[in-house]
Each structure stands twice: as C-alpha cells, then as structure tokens.
Amino acid sequence: SPETYDPENIAHLKASIAVLGLVQPLLVQKIDSKYAVLAGGRRHAALKELAADKSEKGFTAKTKVDCRLVPEECDVTTALSLAENITQAPMNAIDEFEAFARMMEVDGQTPETIAKTFGTTVAAVKGRLRYGLIHPDIRAAARAKTITLDTMKAFAEHPSQEVQKEVYEALTKDDSYLQAYTVRQALKSRGVQVSDDIGAFVREDYEARGGAIAADLLEEHSVLEDAALVETILLEKLTAAAEQARAKLGFAWADAMVRYDYATMADYGRVYPGPIEPDEAAQKRIDEITSELEKLQLEMEDVGLEDDAYNALYERVDTFEDEARDLQEAYSVEDLARAGVMASWSNGQVTLHVGLVRPEDTVKEEDARGSSSSPTGEEAPDAGEITYPASLAEDLKTERAMALGAAMALHPEATLDLTLFKLVSDVLTSGMSVTQAIKTDARKEYRNHAKLDEIDGTSLEQVAAAHDALDLSWLDEARSPADQFAAFRALKPGEKAKLVAYATASTTQSCFARDRQRDSLMHDFEIEIMPDIRAHWTPNAALFNRFKKAWLLKILGEDLGLAQEAVTLASSSKKEIVAFCDKLFAEPFATLTDAQRAAVAAWCPPMMQTAGVACDEAEPAAQTLEPDSEVAQAA
User: For residue 462, which of 84, 258, 361, 406 is within the disulfide window of CB 3.0 to 4.6 Å?
Assistant: First the structure.
C-alpha cells in the first residue's frame, strides 16, 4: 500500500524520476484480469504523484512507462516481493533467512538462481539459508533480542527443529545468559555434521548401516544423528589402521581411541629403534642417499634460490634422511614382542602412535635392556638433539651482531662512553685491547649471511630509524674537512652522542653471547643495553627452515611448554611445522597460558642470549632430550 511508504523516500524518487526518467522498469503480473505491480511499488507511487502534480508537464495519467511482464503461470511472488524489499529498503536479517528458505521450499529455487535474482553471491545466499529454518521460537527470541543473532545462528548447527527446541529449552530453563559457544557444545552431543571431518570419514559406512540423517536445506549441513554409531564406526576404522601398521612393523598389539588421552597414556612406556648393521643392499642405498644429500646441500647454498624452491629442497633432505635412518635402525625382538600401535583421530586424520608399551608390560629399566636401546645394548641416538651446524652458527652470530648494533644505536649515551673508553684505554694502557667486540679504526663491518633477505628485519629497521634521526647538517662534501669539523663541534652533545653511537654500532663483530671471563666489559655492557635480544630480533621461518623437524618438536614441547601441540604436529610435514612456528613467534596465540606466552617471548638459541650461555664457538651448543619425554617420543 502506497500509504505505508516513507513520504521522504517517495519525494526523493519523484525528484529523481522527474530528472532522469524511470531508469528501472516496473515488474508486473496479470492477476484477475488486472495488472499488479509486483516489484516497483515505490516507483509506481512516485509516478502517480508526478501525474497528479500539474507542474510536472512530462507526466500525466496517460504517460506510458516501461514494465517487465511476469508470466501468469510463474509462481515468483515471494521472490519478486523480496527483490523489491532488498533493492529498495534493507530487510531485517531474520526476514531474509525466512524468505530465502521459503523461495527454496515453495518456489523450488536454488541458491544459484536466488543469487542471480538479487545480484549477490551464492556463498552469501547459502549463508542466509543456513539459518532459514531455525525453530520459530528461537527466531522470535532473536527478534525480541532475548538472545543475540550469533546465538540464534549457532542453532543452525543441527537441522532438526525438534532438537533445536529441546536444547534451547534445556539451556534457558534457569534464565541464564545463553552464549553461542554453549549452544554449539550442546548440539555436538546430538549428532555429527556430514561436512565435519569425522562425518565425512564415516558417512559411507554410516549410511550402509541405516544410520539416521537429519537433512538440511543444504546438504553439507545435514547431520548424522546417531552419535553412538558414528563413534563405533570411527573406532573400527582407527583399529583397522592400527592393525595394518602393527602387521607391517611386527608389533605385538594394536588398539585405538577416538581422542588421544594424554592423562591415560602417561602410564604407557615407549620403545625406539636402535642402530643395526645394514646389509650390502641397504649399504648401497645409504651411499646413494649420502651422495644425493651432498648435492642437495650445494643447491641449498645458492643465495639466489627462491623460497619455494628452498623449502622443497629441505623436504627432500628430510625424506632422504628418514629413509637412511630406517635402513640403519630397527626395533629389537624383545621390544616388538611387547610394544604396539595406538591409532587416534587428530586434525582430521588418523594419527598412529608407534612403539607404545602398556603399563602391565612395562618393567624396570634393569630388566628391560632393549626398551630404548639397540640390540647390542648401546644407547640409541636421540633424534631430537640440536647441534647447530657450522653454517647456521656463523649466520646466527651475524644476526646477533646486528641486534647488538641496533641496541647500541638506541642507547647513544652509553655507547659514546664505551667508545671513548675503548679509544682511550687502548692507547693509554699496555697489553691486550679492553675488548675485541668493536673496532676503533672507523671501518664499517661487512655483514656476511647466507640468507640475509629472509631473516627478521627488526634490527635493520631500528638502525635505519636511528640513522634518519641523525643531524647530518655538518656532513657537506662541498665543505673542507676543517669546516665540517667546526660544524660538528657546534652540535649539541646529545647529537654528537647519537653520531658516535651509530658509527660504533656499525662496527659490531659477528658474535655469540659474551663469556664474562673472556670479555667482562662487553658481557656487562650487553646486559645493560640489550637485556633482551628479542627486542631487536625475532625467530622466523628463515631460522626454523634450517632446523630438523625433530628439533622444532623439541623446542615446541620442552622449551615452550607446548607438549600437546608438539605431539599433534609430529605427524605433520616439516613445512607445516615451520609455518606453525613462524606464526607462533610473529604473534603468540591468544590460547597460550601465561607461562607459554612468556616462554615464546623469551626463546632464542642459547648462544644468542645476552647474559646467558658461555659457549665455545668451535663447538656449537647442544641440548639433549630426556629419552622418555613425550616430545622425544613424538620426534
């Protein structure tokens, strides 16, 4: 009815049509021998006002306007009415949910045709359709703002309105505030969506056994309602995977659990393969792998290598190293006779936990010589040991020197004192220089690094900012040195300190943490100006790419306290683990505990710490895993 339209809205349309004409035709359909306007009611009302307005000469009751005729047999009333509302005045979100659902159910339209009608995307239509058939009482609660729109949407996790109503009544009987998270958790016990990773994994068997499915308007949101049957099938599949691995490796037993229970599994032991003497064929293959690894190492030293190519080479190295290890390691007969395989569901796939020993089969160390050792009784090598190759150690020294230089540039007064002290002491005292960490012959240090373009750039940015803050007005090449010196002397003391600090910072030598006994001066000075190297340097993918997969798992599990994540990631590729670590250090996850967040904020290789670990640069630092730790098992 025209009287329901906003007069101001009609006035605007009237003015627009008077100037531009009717840009968009009316949509009409013949009903009971008359033509009804299905879409364009506001335009029609504006046209009638123009015709009634005697001052508008171009519009009369006889003026013809463009119309688009809808066939009489076409039942598109719902669609066209909705088109009018969406294109001319925004609808309430819940109205859209209901209207789109009605268009599919009553008019037989598809998301594609609805999207085409309203000039939107199929994804947007599907998003609305998900909520189109939420129980009316729940929609009413959202209209009345008793619950939020997000909470209402959460009920769409299950397509059955009966289930929705039951859960809604159960959760609101105490008049407590209802949250979307609470709704989703409650609905999980009422079935599994077919698009869920478990739902997709078991669906074929579930349907074959006649399991009930609650159908949704959109197939991917249908639900497998028999949660017990879903779990039964999942356990059967996990057990089959465990049995297949058991038979292949020769273990004594196989078992399965839906979710790996860390509390329960803490009582289990674990055995590891030990070194064996390879036969002639195996030795030949090992030699081939060694040759391939040498070639790959040379390729990886190419400074022009793109990131993707570099990562691909690392993955090949990991694959070859795993193959070589399998040829040189094996489980003992005693271990195979008592250990087994446990399968669980993790991150959308079957995860195998190999070499577990049940509590009843676990014996004291003195009675189980083969449990973590080789058949010869020698201790098995620890796959998680971090040894820092020479090339990586040299590059880390460069990165640490850059961080120290940034700290010096940001502390000009202290660095000025250090520079003057070294200059005076080296001249006035006899014997060794007070420190070799900085130069006083005014030559900028050359930075040598295999992957300088990939490392964290925080220190470089800080030094650049310090350079931009320097007063270089005195440095005019058109002046004579004497005139430059006069201008330099006229600078304020603070500006001179910045210049000296920047120059000294540019001379810092490649270094690791200072040993107090070898260089007490720089040891204490570094602690003063750089108490935390992480203020100038952050570990990133450039570093993690150069670590073995087992090293990364050790760092996550033992250094950062993310043991569960380390075990979960053990089945992932090294590339995925590197990406996880890169994101973790770039912006620590909101889910971390305070202790984990502090560990992430402080972690760096031991030799990179300011006050920390005195290390012989000829023998890079190494750390070892406890052989029975959970992360060692994952590695």
Answer: 406
